[in-house]
Structure to design on (386 residues):
């Protein structure tokens, strides 16, 4: 396909000057290959090359391989801001409590209910890499069907133009656009293609975002099955991370504790919930709120969880200007102190107990957390500094 047609049909328009550069370079290289320096001189009519350059080439009669180098150098020097790409990987440490995850392992949830897991599958989609001061790199139309079978699992997120990775964001389930697609429309091997056991509940309901099944009860003679679905339960989470360099790749490492999927869910007598929006929805909320953490134990910063939601932080102004006074109030009878956390999960500031104002000296998006004297988290608030 001619370069001009490719430019017109591509997802991103190619500037016409780029087309001319590449087109002229190709002509020049072909002519030089035939040692036709005089013909190269005729390229002065082709934008953006000028006649002076080629007349100079003709005058000094440079050797053909030197001409190769010069012409290629001119063509590619037009792209001064190209950024090197780095392979990014997302590694999961599959856990169940303090031990490595394994099927049929007998454990207890936080209600002291015995259980095993015989099936655990869930979708990850809408992966977003937050990097280099808040830039977002979204993996569009990318889905992962997770079926943990060992202690670790690594997903390849591809080559990305990133330097410092600050957070990873993803959703549990399938986005509404593809949630109601026909699984048969996907090629075999695609995460959304038909599976056995099935991860699809039907055209109306869509895919099972999460399927967790097993035995429960003191004698493990009860059955539980939680299948979470529905567009309204398509939850996203964002976790601050600091990628490590490993053989030229950047590796984001997360812990996934599947014991927390069943937190606060009564399974002692068994439970079957397939899209009921009861225990199945609670399991999806646990996936969002509690299962995934970075290696320092910090989890999702998109949603407020595990705190008294009747207590809120009021900040003013929000957004605030750099180094401006930010006034703080919490509707709590107890005195509190505050922590300011950046997108990397680092605490950049901590106030004294009873403080009602603070200053932030770097622009960005922050989470302000309020703690009592007993170090109990009571409220969180997003704060933007311009």
């Amino acid at each position: 396909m001619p370069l001009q047609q490719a430019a017109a049909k591509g997802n991103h328009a190619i500037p016409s000057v780029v087309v001319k550069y590449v087109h002229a370079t190709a002509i020049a290289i072909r002519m030089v290959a035939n040692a036709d320096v005089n013909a190269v001189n005729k390229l002065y009519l082709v934008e953006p090359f000028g006649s002076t350059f080629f007349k100079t080439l003709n005058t000094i009669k440079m050797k053909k391989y030197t001409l190769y180098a010069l012409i290629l150098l001119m063509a590619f020097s037009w792209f001064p801001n190209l950024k090197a790409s780095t392979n990014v990987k997302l590694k999961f440490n599959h856990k169940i409590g303090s031990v490595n995850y394994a099927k049929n392992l007998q454990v207890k949830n936080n209600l002291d209910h015995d259980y095993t897991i015989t099936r655990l599958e869930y979708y990850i989609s809408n992966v977003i890499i937050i990097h280099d001061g808040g830039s977002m790199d979204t993996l569009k139309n990318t889905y992962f069907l997770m079926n943990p079978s060992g202690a670790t699992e690594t997903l390849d997120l591809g080559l990305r133009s990133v330097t410092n990775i600050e957070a990873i964001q993803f959703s549990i389930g399938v986005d509404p656009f593809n949630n109601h697609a026909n699984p048969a429309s996907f090629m075999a091997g695609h995460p959304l293609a038909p599976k056995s056991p099935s991860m699809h509940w039907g055209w109306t309901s869509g895919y099972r975002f999460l399927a967790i099944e097993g035995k429960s009860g003191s004698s493990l003679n009860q059955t539980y099955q939680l299948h979470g679905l529905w567009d309204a339960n398509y939850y996203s989470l964002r976790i601050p991370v600091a990628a490590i360099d490993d053989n030229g790749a950047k590796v984001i490492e997360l812990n996934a504790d599947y014991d927390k999927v069943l937190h606060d869910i009564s399974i002692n007598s068994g439970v079957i919930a397939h899209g009921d929006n009861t225990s199945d929805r609670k399991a999806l909320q646990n996936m969002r709120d509690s299962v995934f953490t970075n290696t320092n134990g910090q989890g999702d910063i998109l949603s407020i969880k595990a705190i008294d939601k009747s207590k809120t932080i009021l900040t003013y102004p929000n957004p605030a200007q750099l180094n401006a006074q930010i006034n703080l109030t919490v509707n709590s009878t107890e005195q509190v102190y505050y922590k300011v956390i950046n997108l990397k999960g680092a605490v950049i500031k901590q106030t004294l107990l009873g403080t009602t104002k603070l200053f932030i000296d770097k622009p960005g998006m922050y989470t302000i957390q309020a703690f009592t004297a007993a170090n109990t988290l009571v409220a969180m608030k997003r704060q933007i500094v311009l």
About this structure: The CA atoms of residues 228 and 278 lie 9 Å apart.
